[in-house]
Amino acid sequence: MGADVFGKAILDYQLGEKNSEIFTISSLGDEDSIPVSHLFRRYETMPDLEKTALSLCSGRVLDIGCGAGSHSLYLSSRGLDVTSIDISHGAVQACKDRGLTNVIEADFWNYKGGNFDTLLLLMNGIGIVGQVSKLTQFFQKTKELLNPGGQIIFDSSDIIYMFDRDEDGGFWIPNDGTYYGELTYELEYKNLKSEPFPWLFVDYNTLQDEALKAGFDCKLVRMGIHYDYLARLAVKA
Prior knowledge:
By secondary structure, the chain is of the alpha/beta class. The protein has one domain (5-235): Vaccinia Virus protein VP39 (Rossmann fold). Helix content is 24%, strand content 31%. The protein contains 6 helices and 12 strands. The chain has helices spanning 5-14, 48-56, 70-77, 89-97, 135-145, 204-213; strands at 21-26, 31-35, 60-64, 81-86, 103-105, 116-121, 146-157, 182-189, 192-193, 197-200, 216-223, 228-235. Strands 5-4-3-6-7-12-11 form a 7-stranded mixed beta sheet, with helices on both faces. Strands 1, 2, 8, 9 and 10 form a 5-stranded antiparallel beta sheet that branches. The longest helix has 11 residues, at 135-145. The protein is globular and about 55 Å long. The mean pLDDT is 94.
């Protein structure tokens, strides 16, 4: 993503800037912001969907896109063996400052750190796939990282709600040959701005179809409060 927007914001927060925000701009024209404090939230303030995800983690865990390390810290407090990876240099440094000992600056697609019982991707971490067509590559990579009987746990959202409805209740989705959940984002923080990067929001039915074709069992664990959901995948026995 070029500039380390998340890393700079996270490190600034640790230095005392508690009210800062990261601004996001999507290819749908939607502008939003993420309070940096949200990345440092304690378990007690996490949404129920995330709490459920953390309760399902077991064995050796790989926290992919760990950010400021809040999920890894909680899992470590439970006694789990957690490895945390992120492409952000600043985020990795912050995680170490917060007490995590096994944090690696790495790109998921190139990571070769052994085998795990749980792969965890929260805060729509599956977004790193970018396009539905790359889910096959994602599943192949996860098989390389999973122990026999291992699992993938992640949340995502069906962003169909972001499109206008017609009189019959259907949605107006651009017919440009791409999946409607494939977006492009830019991030801004202070004087830093990221390069545009692809990000995927995948509805559960599409996810399930792709997972089954790749040889995974796919379970809908729970629905969130606004088109989001938690899924658990495991390689078919």
